[in-house]
Amino acid sequence: MAKVSDPLQVCLSVVGALECVVRRCVGPSGGTVIFTKDTGETLITKHGHRILTALHLEHPIARTVLESLCAHDGVTADGSKSFILLLAALLRGIRDSVHESSRTHRRHASWKLANQLHAFCWDGLDDVVAHGVVPYTSSLFGPGGCELEGGVLAALVGGYVGGRVSPSQAEVLTPLLCELYARLGHGHTDGAAISFIHSNFSQLHTAVSGLHSARSHVVEGLLLACDWSVWKEADGPVKALVVFEKLDTRDDESVSIQLQDDWTVHSDGVVQERLATVLRLQVNIVLSAVKQPDCVLVWACLNNVSVLDCCDPEQLDLLCELCTAEPLTVQPPMRVGTLTHCRRFQLGGRRYANVGVTHTSVHTHTLVLCAPAAGPLEQSVSVSRGVFSMLQHLSQSHRHNDVSPCPQEQRLTSSQRLTSSQRLTSSQRLTSSQLFSPCPNLCHCILNAGDVIPVGGAFEFLFHHSLLHSNHGDPESRRLLAEAVLSVPRSLHTHRPGDFLQHLAHFTSRLLQPHAIREPGSGSEFMWGLGADGSGRVCVEPVCSKHQLVASVLQCVNRLLRVETVIHTPRSLALAAAEDDDDDDEEDDDGDRT
Amino acid sequence: MSRVCKKKPSVCTDEPLSNDEMCHKIAVMRHVLNSCYGPRGRLKQIHNSVGGHVQTTSTADVLLKAMIFSEPLLKLITAAILDHTARFSDCGLFTGVFCLGLIENGKRSGLGSAVASRVYKYLLEVCNGYLSAGGCDCKVHVDFSSIRSLIALAHTAVTSKPACMLNHDESQHIASLIVHAFLQSVPSGSANTFGRTLVVTLEGQPVSDSAVFPGLLVEVPILQSVDLKNHNPGPDKIVLFRASLSGDCSEIGEATLEIQVGINPETAILEQLMKLGERVVQDGVGVFACQKVIHPVLQQYLKERGLVVIERLGLALLEPLAQMTGALIMASICSPVPAKAYGQIGGLHLHRIGSKELLQLLPSGEAAVNTVVLCHRNETMLEELKVTCQRAEHVLRLTLKEPYALIGGGCTETVLSAYIKYMSESKASEAASALKCSRAEFLLATEAFCCSLQSVALSLDHDDQHFLMDLTHAHCWVAEEDAHSQTTTFHACSCGLVKEKADLEKIFLNIPLKRAYHSFLPARIKSDVQPELLDSFTAKINALNVAVETADLVLSVKYIIRDVN
């Protein structure tokens, strides 16, 4: 059942098909894809990873690519579209370069190239990025360079959001997400706020459809998507009781209705007792995860207690955690904590409950996202979630690599290197650990370590240039990679190919005069030429994720080209592996078995 | 074990907007919405093939909810319109017509989706800036000290729905009723919760019988009404029950029943009910109301003691009743009613409207609950009238947040388009470089935007009238063709703000060859004439934004991938 055809050609046609889908969605000018199901579900997205996972890919090669892509996405949470573009361009380059050789040699030649690229990935890549790209990027935002409006965070978020939603949505989302981060972190710019938002994003946002997206805003405190069943005005800090079960749950037979001759036919003793306990705690609010029975509501009305029922249990958990609510030793389980305020909240004609909590490090705020309909709303929500997972990845990679000259020193060394970039020896070689320098302050860290670069092709141009002028590994494979890398900015400018050439020419002319970089003004000029894409704002992306992208693509190419034959087997792979270790579906070099 | 099916590959549509079939579908949808727009709009009749209910409507909300679309793009647009109307009740058709116009014109102009979307966004900002600025000419301040602008708003909302089938006097009457109900539902100083307006519909009565009643109207069986007639009309205590008082054991809820030997549970519960009744009578309660059924023996007992008994009230009436009377809704029959739980009513009145006997419960204090009785000749018209009235009341409520209204009759659209055309032509070069597109592209997209705005104004035309725009104030004029003399006469523009003058130059909007004009800044109007037609400001601003945003999204769609599994 093995297919007799050129494996390279097969790979290329499969990857080419994926590229076709992805290419039109690249960058701020890219379009969107709508997925629909016959069940009526719709997904509107520009997010590369979501597009590719939503397609039902059948072909084994496509699945291999997707697997590598997911692995890459797991590391950087970014760059899925570029992955496909780069992969396709690289495969095309390899095909063109082996085209001359005879058919039998072709396979061998492509293998060799793949191996060389893989080898380059291990020993040359770090070096090229560290020498060719990092010095330039650090000069951009260093002293005398350009001041970023709204901070580097805004630029970073802008870069991420810009590639995933339409420009007008991005304009709304970018400042909003930065505001959420700033207000939540309350002045502290460390990673705690990021990881807090990242892990609790579903509780920290409220989605409202039917309003236009400019109505999105940030609200102090938590927003619970339900209205107060009983509302009594309360000012200042209030004591709140959190319950997850009905207050009249009976787990024993002792509570019952007794039909007797006298007036009190029955009174639910235990419930009354419980309510009395609650009242003794001087609680003003009852927050409940389930609908409370009517008798509890009547009790609350009579005792000036506000009741909010049918809350999201996860939000309640978060609330308990934030206000360090103490559990009570009664049945059903309840917790008591203090809230800074509780209000009614109107949002687009619907009522919400707004409660505030104090916590030592985070200042809870809720992101209110608005969009005209459910589809675009879902898109905004998933992009906002994505921003924080990207930032989380970034801040974690900083923490993991703790070798550290202090940021000041580091800046000094990098500018020294800049002046004497010709004299760099291998002992002074920058390693990737410099890219991930540890720093408690995320923004400064990104800025000082110089590992952000304007979006729109700056990385690719620099990388292209330094690849051609480096002396690592095989020149043929370097040339291939250098050509392929340009495919990403090229597809950014598909609507106007002229722009791409203009940028490239501009860049190359700058790079040819190394002294120009040293001048204070040159950095900004270098950036303004590219960074602003439509909106006039500067957007940046982290170099380390770009670096990772190149490495992942090289590994994927190697993985694809090493496959000689694809064998379709009706057996489950897990079973087959248990029986025979060699029997592998995708990387089977042993030849045909059919 | 479930069967494992091989999944079918997804169906992929490439560049859906360049597909002719898709364009046709969009054009059909635009025609459907277009033809509904305005006071002369064409009605749509909705019925399914198996018979049953027939609806006649021209309201976007009703129409789109009844229609099922197969195209994801149309679904998206529909969802945007429905979500908008769910929030604002008004301007649904405007959203649809404008959004589809933007899509069609944007596509026709041949610009890339990114450029079109950037320019649209820029122009939208210009619109928003103009409309929210103080010196905006299409904006009218809603003056709460006079009733005129409120009446104008309500009247425009009522007349724009021809399916209500109202003549001039009837629509005036309905508009004044809506304003009346609205003003009554606004809470006065002390209470801070907004009042409610309930609607009772009566079929077969003339529209002029419609009226607003303070308090609640409860339908009562004719037989009971005899007893009610000799009830004292003064204020009274009221008690409300949510729990069923039917006396069935099963209604008590989940609990273990512990029954002493020799006791019949039904009798015991009935005794309990009777005790409850006794206590209520002792406390001097005049009205006894329950959401569900009341046991006949208890009913009889209470009636004998001169109480008014209302059963099967329903949740929709129970909550406003609790709000109005301040009573607590009792949930259990097992404990006596606390004194705090009793509410107060101002009195009872019996009304007979048409075939129905209605008991009016008057509020005792300031509670802002009132009931509108709407009458119409038949069911379909009545349904549309009900929707229209609720819509109009919502529009009036929106003015409380932002006390503005926009001039109606298409004038807002023409003024806005003239303003945008002027502003963008005067700043074309700067704007184009800021938006990273060429000047020509910018002007093309502007033209598409202005055309779409004007096409909304033109949608008001359904009888081959001539629509004109004057070149001073940029208001919209409708020419009534006079069959005898070839001349057309004007008195005022369609919103009534500008009066005809000899030196007012006009161009035809719906004759393409006569449309070209030099851009100009719409001149301010110096007169104290009140416009006759007003639209909701809040709703229209949101509609404008939603339409542009949706159009952006639709234009940017490159692929539609349908999972057929």
Automatic annotation (TrEMBL), chain A:
Q: Which InterPro entries match?
A: BBS10, Cpn60/GroEL/TCP-1, GROEL-like_equatorial_sf
Q: For the region Disordered, what residue ranges are annotated?
A: 398-425
Q: Biased-composition ranges for Low complexity?
A: 410-425
Q: Name one GO molecular function term.
A: ATP binding
What Pfam families does the annotation carry? Cpn60_TCP1 (PF00118)
Q: Which GO terms describe its biological process?
A: chaperone-mediated protein complex assembly
Q: Please give the superkingdom of this protein's source.
A: Eukaryota
Record-given protein name: Bardet-Biedl syndrome 10 protein
Q: Record the organism.
A: Ictalurus punctatus (Channel catfish)
Q: What is the lineage of its organism?
A: Eukaryota, Metazoa, Chordata, Craniata, Vertebrata
From TrEMBL, chain B:
* Protein's UniProt name: McKusick-Kaufman/Bardet-Biedl syndromes putative chaperonin isoform X1
Under the cellular component aspect of Gene Ontology, which terms does the record hold?
cytoplasm; kinociliary basal body; nucleus
Q: Which domain of life is it from?
A: Eukaryota
GO MF annotation terms: ATP binding; unfolded protein binding
Q: Which terms does the UniProt entry file under GO BP?
A: chaperone-mediated protein complex assembly; cilium assembly; developmental process; protein folding
Q: Which InterPro entries match?
A: Cpn60/GroEL/TCP-1, GroEL-like_apical_dom_sf, GROEL-like_equatorial_sf, MKKS, TCP-1-like_intermed_sf
